[in-house]
Structures are given as structure tokens and as C-alpha cells.
């Protein structure tokens, strides 16, 4: 049982989906403090050969949990769709991807919770990619631990996990001995964003999954993020 844990990022990059694809259970960490200026409410896309932020406007006082963050405008869907259509209408897979993305946005009508919107989009994309990974909400798993490693270990144990798949950036601060003491194997994902055709002369890694989709389509996108395994 491989467990991965991550905050509910907004239309995240391909490496996020690689982590989902490599896990049996993916825990949405929605009950931690909202990190201002993070990828939870914004992501970069390509527009006219330049990268720009696509942002969900939110208001979150210090200490607000991600699950309690609210989007502050009601017309964000129309604004986003207009920007995305303008940015990618000349991309090779626009006819295939655009109706799906437009319908996915419209399916979130009435939602103002940042977490609900992000999770809804993630679920819809994973279903389209035919990923069988199970999603769980951290806020619905009974754990008492609040400290970083202890919280993660508690979540993995609550799900009877044997392997914790962590992000590569966590190598610097996670304590392997803590996981070993709990009989949990600690593995680190490292997704290498190999170049694909973009609407730009220079390849830019780390853009939203929508950039991958519009440029290489659904089938090749799944192959793109699924091909690499952390172990």
C-alpha cells in the first residue's frame, strides 16, 4: 500500500499527477494552514510565448485552514475560461481539450470553497486519465498529530500504508528514522519534466497540466506523467 499526501493544488503541474499515478491512496491535506503565495490557488500557463499566473482570488487570514478558504469572486470561472481560450486556442489539441475543460469549470458552479473547487477539478482530470488511485481527505481521517512528520506518519498508519511516497523537495527536512521506527518505507518521487511541444520557442517546465493537455492531448499526457516511477 503506497500512500502519497499533498495539499490540494490548483490545476497542478504534471509532476503532481505523477505522484497520484504512483500511489494507491492519495491523501488531500486540506486541514493544514493555507500557505499564502503557494500553488494551492494559482498556477502558471503559457500565453503568447510567456508564462503568466492563473489565480483563484481568495481571502485567508493568517491561520486559516485550506479547507476553510473561500474564493472571493463569483465570476472567476468566466475570467479563467476567457484567459485559457485566448492562450491555447491555436494549440494542436484545443478541439479535444477545450470542451472538457470548459465543462469541468462549469461543473463547479455554486462552489466558493477553494478546496472543493481544486478537488473537483483533480477528480475530474483523474477520471479522464483513468487513474485508479483512491482519494481521501486528511480532515476526515482521525489523527491527533500536528507536527509535520508525525502527522504524515499518523495518516499513513491510519490507512494501513507500508510505503510513504514523499515529494523530492522534502528530502531536506524529513526524518527517515521516524518512518523506519514505525515500519514505514520512505520513498521520494522525482519527476523529470522532459520537454514537449509548447506554444513558445523555449521550453518552460512546471506549468499547469492544462499546458500539457493542450499541446499533446489526453493520451500522451497520461503517458507523459505516468512513464516515470519513483522506485
Give an account of the 3D structure.
- The protein is of the alpha/beta class.
- Helices cover about 35% and strands about 15% of the residues.
- The chain has seven helices and nine strands, in the order E-H-E-E-E-E-E-H-H-H-E-H-E-H-E-H.
- The protein has helices at about 15-20, 75-90, 95-105, 115-130, 150-160, 175-180, 210-225, and strands at about 1-5, 25-30, 40-45, 50-55, 60, 70, 135, 165, 185-190.
- The strands form three sheets. The chain has a five-stranded parallel β-sheet with strand order 7-2-1-8-9, sandwiched between helices. The protein has a two-stranded antiparallel sheet with strand order 3-4. The chain has a two-stranded antiparallel ribbon with strand order 5-6.
- A hairpin with a 2-residue loop joins strand 3 and strand 4 (about 50-55).
- Helix 2 packs antiparallel against helix 3.
- The radius of gyration is 18 Å and the shape is globular.
- The mean pLDDT is about 95.
Tell me the layout of helices and strands.
Elements: E1 2-6, H1 14-22, E2 25-28, E3 42-47, E4 50-55, E5 58-59, E6 70-71, H2 76-88, H3 94-106, H4 114-128, E7 134-137, H5 148-158, E8 163-167, H6 176-181, E9 185-189, H7 209-226
Parallel strand pairs: 1-2, 1-8, 2-7, 8-9
Antiparallel strand pairs: 3-4, 5-6
Helix pairs in contact: 1-7, 2-3, 3-7
